Amino acid sequence: MKYRQLGDRGPKVSTIGFGTWAIGGRDWGRTNDKVSKRALHEALDKGVTLIDTADVYGFGHSEKLIADVLKERGKGEVIVATKAGNDFYDATEEDDKGYGPIRQNYDKDYLIWAAEQSIKRLNVDVLDILQLHSPDLEKLERDEPWEAMEILKKQGKIRYAGFSIQSFKETEQAFLLDEHHGLLDCIQVRYNILEREAEKELFPKAQKYGLGVIVRIPLLFGLLTGKFTKETRFGDDDHRRMNLSPERLEKYVDEMEKLDTLFKEYSTYTKAQISLAFCISHSACYTAIPGAKTPQQVFENCVSSDLAPIPIDKIPSLSY
Ligand SMILES: NC(=O)c1ccc[n+]([C@@H]2O[C@H](COP(=O)([O-])OP(=O)(O)OC[C@H]3O[C@@H](n4cnc5c(N)ncnc54)[C@H](OP(=O)(O)O)[C@@H]3O)[C@@H](O)[C@H]2O)c1
Question: pTM score, two decimals?
């Protein structure tokens, strides 16, 4: 496992982290907490030191699983990055189907309160990284979310401030870095070998301001492992029924076929490993946080950290 300092001001992190949306146990089909914890242990055994989560993942469940595992083995150098802004506290068990009444709440007082709830669930004194959880632009044009992050830093409740940029809004929200780079330490971005919009404006700005980029959805929800076909269908309890809908699969699978030459060139590695290595090869990207449900997936994904950098410029930019 290789390590990098996350931007100019962030902590040192492994170049492959662990995204814990799926093991929260909602919106990703059935999961098993025992297996999820084994997956977390496997990640830590392999040298992963960055775990990404959010308060809303499983309505707090993802944070609690992380706390359990870190209690079992000690937190050590592990950095836990969580998020706030998706207010689920009034939602019922059924409510998150299709992102029901979970509502975006970036009011200053709410964000401060939500961070305190994460501190309790994660069983820590201070959050390593708190990220604004993919707000709409209109929320970010208000001062409140930024003030909340500033206050939380001053109060010593967060060490680093992050901003998870909404999917497909990479260019639209890039200007915010000009305004708030003084407060931010890192950003989280949807980026993978098929979706490279962030290369245009966002990454140059992140580099200009020394912000650490954390790459999310690096496997395009599992598609880049090569295991899905145009015929794959997901259950009602799996967000991929929308995010990898039959129409999207049709397009993505065609696009992926154009990468066959690349995959053949690195044929000692799996498609997942090559796709992850791609993400951390861009000079703006410090770490990628693939989600995983099993120790086997974690084992496979962690190998990518040690691959030689992939020459990004030689890979054709596809349609996204
Ligand atoms: N707005 C935001 O801030 C936001 C949004 C999305 C994600 N995130 C963060 O980014 C993390 C990563 O994104 P993601 O989890 O959505 O997508 P991803 O990393 O692209 O895909 C993860 C999924 O792919 C499958 N997979 C992973 N490794 C595999 C392997 N080696 N072989 C076969 N299948 C494998 C697993 O699901 P199956 O086994 O079920 O196929 C896994 O849950 C999230 O966990 C979360 O922490 C943040």
Answer: 0.97
